[in-house]
Amino acid sequence: MLELKNISFSYKDKKREYQIIKDLSFKISEGEFVSLIGPSGCGKTTLVNLIAGYLQVKEGEIFFANKKVSLPDKNRVVISQEDDLFYWMTVYENLKLVSNDENKINDLLELTGLSAYKRYYPRQLSGGMKKRLALARALAVESKFIIMDEPFASQDYRIKKKLYQDLLDIASQKNVAILLITHDLDEALGLSDRILVMGGNPANIKGEFIIPFSEIKDLNIEEMDEYIKLKKQLKELGYNV
Amino acid sequence: MLKKIFAISIILALWQSVYIFFPIKGYILPSPVEIGISFSEVLMSKEIFFHIFASLQRVVVGFLMATFAGVGLALLFGHYKVVGEYFRPIVEILRPIPPIAWIPIAILIFGLGNASAYFIVFLGSFFPIFTNTYFGVISLPKIYRNIASSFNLGRFIYFRKILFKFSLPYIFVGLKIGIGMAWICVIAAELIGAQSGLGYFIQLNRLLLQTDKMLVGMILIGTIGYFLNYIISKIEKLTVKWENK
């Protein structure tokens, strides 16, 4: 579905050129849930912007559904940490902006538990509801690939748990592939089929872990042997967990 | 409302009480009672409504032209940065020139009458509307532009539902300043070059030394200006609904 082939990215200021990403490659298949973890400032958000088409790669290529990525597209929607809902539109209007299919909008409102809030403005919703609306908006355009850039970072633990479950249910129901950018290892281990570790300067993929218990999709996994083993491996890689 | 009436009553009472101790001549500064009598006479004569209508019509035409031009150009200059780089300096050079300074040129070009007044009102309200809208447009967070392009929203929808809607609170700040400026400008234009309107009414009564009627004209200017601002605020409340939630 998504393939990054030896991509590099740098930016220049008046003094010098800064190489952010160099020779980075990975693939994501249809319906797969992949988490990307890495230290702050290593270039994760730059990578998100490259995949979304907001920035252009300097070297290498990004393919989505066998087509080269050059511009943003509704097939690669980003849900970010920031509040990116149009706050001057109601819940319903946010969805109506991207889809004219009334039945689909109503189904998505039902799916995300927002039917009773369709006339509300985003600022009247809780943090968790806002994230569910952002997810509904991505699904309204039938995006088969969603990039989530630390979407749960500002949520409290109770809301996070509920959102994780909602996300897993919706992703499997709609067969959506997800790339989750996160700092939270428990989040990555509990939700993903695979974890990519990003690091270095310039950044690259430093490690890749298939989650052996991914079919369990249980967030209470801290006691499992595989979990402890993975955490140890990540520590050895220098990733601070 | 009661507080406002109370404050005005206190001022009027103090003003009236001055006349008990200092007998000031009516043609220099009439008392509130004299002005009140004059006010009812002016309203009874009905001629004043012709002047009010003339001023309001000039304000509405000039202000609407300024709104369309100001909002339209600000959206254009703010969104297309290259266009803005070329043309904004021109706007910034023209902006500090007081609209009243344009009156002689307006009369030369358009002659005495409505066209000159429209032009002066337009100039007075254009700059606050343009400037506030422009700052609204350029402060649109990049994330909304990215989201709009991700969802393949067309340019028309982007302008109408994203850029314009986001800028609406800024536009209304401009409109409220603009309507005040429009009203100031129309009176200034009528004082110099018109045969009707509240500015002309004040000027005529100045020549006739009817100070009480001059003050009636001034009170009407203040009251109508207040209501124009009130109307814009009401429209804002109905339009910018998300701000009140």
Architecture overview:
- Chain A has helices at 44-52, 91-96, 102-111, 127-140, 157-174, 185-191, 225-236, and strands spanning 2-12, 17-28, 33-37, 59-64, 67-68, 77-80, 145-149, 177-182, 194-199, 204-210.
- Chain A has seven helices and ten strands.
- In chain A, 32% of the residues lie in helices and 27% in strands.
- Chain A has 241 residues and is of the alpha/beta class.
- In chain A, helix 3 (102-111) runs antiparallel to helix 4 (127-140) and helix 4 runs parallel beside helix 5 (157-174).
- The longest helix of chain A is centred in the C-terminal third of the chain and has 18 residues, at 157-174.
- In chain A, the strands form two sheets. A six-stranded mixed sheet of chain A has the order 6-7-8-3-9-10, sandwiched between helices.
- Chain B is mainly α and 245 residues long.
- Chain B has one domain (48-243): MetI-like fold (Orthogonal Bundle).
- Chain B has ten helices and no strands.
- Chain B has helices spanning 2-21, 32-45, 47-79, 81-94, 103-110, 114-138, 142-150, 155-193, 198-207, 211-239.
- Chain A binds chain B through residues 52-54, 71-74, 76-78, 80, 82, 84, 86-89, 97-98, 120-121, 123-124, 137, 141, and chain B through 143-144, 146-147, 149-153, 157, 161-162, 165-166, 168, 240-242, 245.
CATH superfamily of chain B: MetI-like
CATH fold type of chain B: MetI-like fold
Please give the largest β-sheet of chain B: none
CATH class categorisation of chain B:
Mainly Alpha
Strand order of the largest sheet of chain A: 6-7-8-3-9-10
Number of distinct beta strands of chain B:
0
Topology as H/E string of chain A? EEEHEEEHHHEHEHEEH
Coarse shape of chain B: elongated
What does the main sheet of chain A amount to?
6 strands, mixed
What is the subunit arrangement here?
heterodimer
Strand % of chain B is: under 5%
Structural class of chain A: alpha/beta
The amount of helix of chain B comes to: over 70%
Low-confidence stretches of chain A: none
Mean pLDDT of chain B: 91
The chain pair forming the largest interface, with residue counts per chain, is:
A-B, 25 and 19 residues
Helices and strands of chain B: which structural class? mainly alpha
Helix count of chain A, per DSSP? Answer: 7
Number of strands of chain A: 10
Head-to-tail CA distance between termini of chain A: 30 Å
- One letter per element, helices H and strands E, the order of chain B comes to HHHHHHHHHH
